[in-house]
Recover the amino acids of this structure.
């Protein structure tokens, strides 16, 4: 699974309808709008099938939100014995609640320590190392700093922005959520496929 968040997505409603394509003229869009609030979207993409799994929308992006999303992803396929999650180094991807959950579903009984003081939970690097352990049921793989482009969900987020968000008009945050989820459902039914990954692992040169 390739995982990331899109935060601060604005529900903007255009005050007037746009003008359609005409001979010699591009589609024109009303520049005045009303703001109806924002939403955060947490998404995971199956890199094998291209499907978007268990999309999560809400007003916040907290460690509780990310944990709930991860739990929904794992619940989507009870037969899977191990999950590999690619994500960036955001603090909610290395949280105390995530460590406790991974330990629980992996059958780990050892004492995890106390956040900020001792043990696995003490520091973020220790939590990240624990979450990256390949023997656990859920294994996290963190992209290097400044390398979020290596995470394939970034490609899909650009599709969402182009197809739905950039030129959309939303009457409320509920309307925004409905249209995003409807697009995800349509994408999964008609467009989902693996991305052809062309990067060969060679050092990039200027």
């Amino acid at each position: 699974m390739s995982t990331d968040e899109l935060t601060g997505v604005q529900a903007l409603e255009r005050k007037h309808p746009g003008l359609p394509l005409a001979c010699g003229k591009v589609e024109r869009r009303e520049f005045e709008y009303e703001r109806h609030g924002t939403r955060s979207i947490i998404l995971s993409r199956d890199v094998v099938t291209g499907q978007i799994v268990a999309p999560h929308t809400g007003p916040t992006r907290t460690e509780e939100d990310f944990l709930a999303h991860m739990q929904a992803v794992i619940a989507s396929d009870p037969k899977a014995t191990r999950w590999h999650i690619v994500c960036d180094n955001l603090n909610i991807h290395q949280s105390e609640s995530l460590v406790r959950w991974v330990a629980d579903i992996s059958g780990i009984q050892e004492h995890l320590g106390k956040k900020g003081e001792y043990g696995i939970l003490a520091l973020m690097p220790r939590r990240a190392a624990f979450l990256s352990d390949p023997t656990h049921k859920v294994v996290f793989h963190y992209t290097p700093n400044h390398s979020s482009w290596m995470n394939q969900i970034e490609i899909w987020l650009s599709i969402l922005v182009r197809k739905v968000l950039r030129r959309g008009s939303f009457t409320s945050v509920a309307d925004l959520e409905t249209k995003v989820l409807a697009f995800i459902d349509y994408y999964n039914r008609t467009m989902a496929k693996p991305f052809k990954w062309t990067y060969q692992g060679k050092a990039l040169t200027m």
Observations:
- Strands lie at 2-14, 33-45, 52-58, 83-87, 138-142.
- The radius of gyration is 20 Å.
